[in-house]
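Page 37, top half.
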Amino acid sequence: MASTASRTLSPRKKPRQARATFTLDAIFEATIQLLVADGMHRLTTTKVAERAGVSVGTLYQYFPHKEALVYAVNERYLENLAARIESTCRAQHGRPIGEMVEALIDTYWRAKTERADVTRALYRSVAELDNQALIDAFAKRADAATSAMLASATDATFTDLKSVNLTLVTVIFGAVRNAFERNLRPAETRKLRRQLVTMCQAYLESAA
């Protein structure tokens, strides 16, 4: 059963036609732009509607308030991120663990840094929202994809795959977020990424 918080943050309806999907895309992009420019506290549904080129009434057809809108933006972001991780993991099935780790880190890092300002804005936007359901759904998809990938490795077998996988993804995801929070320079970020790959490869070799 959905929690009271998740029901409150759920959209009023889902788009059923291409035109409605286009409208929703415009609303989401306008929300992201305003979150980057002004932050969560200055965001309003009126500003979003104006930026998206739709009426406030149209926006309210989907979202009862700005918290529900921001929740939906974060939901789409995490769904897209999970899909990218799943695609990478499928492509790495049957490869050596060293290649798997590098591909996974590269995919996650790229997804987070392609629009770094957006990533930072979304991190901040959920500070006052109950987004645990979104995190749980993302973690379930990521864990399933990475576990299946590691299980298919040609050069390693893990007796406690669940623990090894949890450690791996926690280290990768945590390191990338910490890099954002520190606001590292590009040169420092590149070095950190390389060291992260080396560390994770060494861990998997040791755990195998």
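Page 37, bottom half:
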Amino acid sequence: MMMSGEKAFKSGLVALVGRPNVGKSTLLNQFIGEKVAITATKPQTTRNRITGIYTTEEAQIIFLDTPGIHKPKHKLGQHMVRMAESALEEVDLVLFVVDSTAPLGGGDRYIAGHFPSLKTPVFLVLNKIDLLSPAELARVEAEYSTLYSFAEVISVSAVTGENLAFLADQIISYLPEGPQYYPPDMVTDQPERFIVAELIREKVLHLTREEIPHSIAVEVEEMKEREGKNLILVRANIYVERDSQKGIIIGRGGHMLKEIGQLARADIERLLGCQVYLELWVKVRKDWRDSLEALRSFGYDE
């Protein structure tokens, strides 16, 4: 029972939407203080909705980091866009995250075109303000504000954390009264295997270029604790679509695969809090992005 004068607890779902590569995943990670969503300079890094949980004494914000809305070129792309668009219908608040250093484009207009049919408030979140002067920021804010009548317009830097506390306060002020759905120390509801696979995929994104980043999928085949040792064995497969891509991932003398493994293992050890023995294998699954069977097996459910 709530005592007189005591604030009611608030909770709700908040969707992060926007074009690919505007900093949605970086913003989510900065909010909750841990890496639950992978980041990369390549567009369309996020492929599933990643749930991040931000809890204070007064509220619990459940963030959905959605794939960037874009024109799909294959079944995987179609899945990603459906995930992002369906999130708009399920939440209590939408954060439309834009890159304030990039010109307003057709992709922004397309996404904003979804907003008039929504019953939920939409915030315009101008990201990367650490790279702009006040005059430039004012111009960008005025330009984006023509797209829709936003409930709030807030400028932030996902990289430096500037203005995120204010953004959190504003989000909470719009959320309904509700229960604490998750324990206060829980930062995501994604299973460990999913996050481990994503951390491995992130390293491939960072170390490769051209067609490779979007042609890979990672599947964790086994995670097993070694008895009597503070050690977890992780076996994972990196799938590509062509034999030539397999050679690039392995690299000359296995150098590229070794570097991927070293970087991924460090992040996985931080995640699991113990030593990790990581085994990586590279396999070809031709044109998997256009195979419904493959998409399901890799966790990209229809």
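Margin note: The chain has two domains: 10-174, 192-297.
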